[in-house]
Amino acid sequence: MPQLPSVPDILFAVSAVAVIGFSLAVVLARNPVRSTLLLILSFLPVSLIYILMQATFAGILQVMVYAGAIMMLFTFVIMMINPAPGGGELPGDATSGKTFGKGDLLWVVLLCGVGLIVIPPVQYAASRITAPLIASGGSPAHKEGFGTVESIAQLIFRDPANNPLTVSFELISILILVGVIAAVNFGRRTQKAAKAASPQATADETNAAGGNP
Amino acid sequence: MTFLTLSNALTVSLVLVLIGAFGVLRRRNLILVLLSVEIMLNGVNLSLISFNYFLWGASELGHYLYMLSIGVAAVEAAVGLAMVIVLFRNHRDVTRTRIARLGETSETEAGAGA
């Protein structure tokens, strides 16, 4: 009698199908706003997979930071840029009226070929590596409180003077600071350029206005 | 039947990376290219978490790498979207194929002006 799949297995299978389906929809959707919202939707099953793998803190981060903060940034920028009143596609995108043309078919075949070459060896190697573990429940023995906030904090911040993870974790904040400075600098530079360009532009406009009549 | 295995998780993450690669290569809108990069990062994050769960139960190094990856993704989104906004302000367009020709148009304009 075949063994029935357990609840985590069913949840994992449903989530995996949902993630792949939503991600395909993100890539193929014509409307960028819809793409962004579909990507947020695709993060929820990923977070469920993380929680199934005892990575509760990672699952919470996936929803709060990824879906909540980063994707909100994307939605914000698309809403800011999108000039079509009906929430249509951005100018220049899908000029042929459809997002999936003949040129895309070639790339689909190419990437499917890459997948067919890469995925079976990976599956084989993974099943070979985990074969001894399958007998004992499919995963190695996890320590007490695996994946919780406290455990990860202990990993990163215990003995901070000698812990390389503490240093690299703090270095992320410097990376983010540099990114913020770069983003602000992009905005400032265009203001300067606009200031430098605007007197000339207004002069041209007045010349044109004076010359026309 | 067990679906929750390392090989299935790695297959999902590889498929996500391939879907993201298709988006990066084929979408013309720069914002959608950035979204496709997020899909690829998502696939890599899934592989990090699943390796940690299936092969290493003693500590959360994979979760730690996932947090690093989220930080990098946030910075990438911030800088990339700032660049997209600057491009849109200056050229009213965020299409990859047209922005790739910006140098040519400025040269021809300069030639026409001279």
- Helices and strands of chain B, in N-to-C order? HHHHH
* SSE-based structural type of chain A: mainly alpha
Helix/strand/pairing category of chain B:
mainly alpha
CATH-defined fold name of chain B: Helix Hairpins
Please give the domain count of chain A: 3
Mean pLDDT of chain B: 85
CATH class of chain B: Mainly Alpha
**Largest sheet: number of strands, sense, barrel closure of chain B:** none
Distance between the termini of chain B: 74 Å
- DSSP summary: helix tally of chain A: 6
Largest interface: A-B, 100 and 79 residues
CATH architecture of chain B: Orthogonal Bundle
Roughly how many Å is the radius of gyration of chain A? Answer: 25 Å
What percentage of the residues of chain A does DSSP assign to strands (E)?
A: under 5%
- Our count of domains of chain B comes out at 1
Helices, strands, pairings?
The complex is a heterodimer of chains A (213) and B (114).
Chain A: H1 7-28, H2 32-52, H3 56-81, H4 102-134, H5 149-157, H6 164-211
Helix pairs in contact in A: 1-2, 2-3
Chain B: H1 6-26, H2 30-55, H3 61-91, H4 96-99, H5 102-113
Helix pairs in contact in B: 1-2, 2-3
Structure description:
- Helices cover 75% and strands 0% of the residues of chain A.
- Chain A has 213 residues and is mainly alpha-helical.
- Chain A folds into three domains: 1-85, Four Helix Bundle (Hemerythrin (Met), subunit A); 103-146, no CATH class; 159-213.
- The model of chain A is unreliable at 90-97 and 209-213 (pLDDT under 50).
- Chain B is mostly helical and 114 residues long.
- Chain B has a single domain (6-113), classed as Orthogonal Bundle (Helix Hairpins), CATH 1.10.287.3510.
- Chain B is built from five helices and no strands.
- Chain B starts with 5 loop residues before the first helix and ends with a helix.
- The model of chain B is unreliable at 107-114 (pLDDT under 50).
- At the A-B interface, helix 1, helix 2, helix 3, helix 4 and helix 5 of A face helix 1, helix 2 and helix 3 of B.
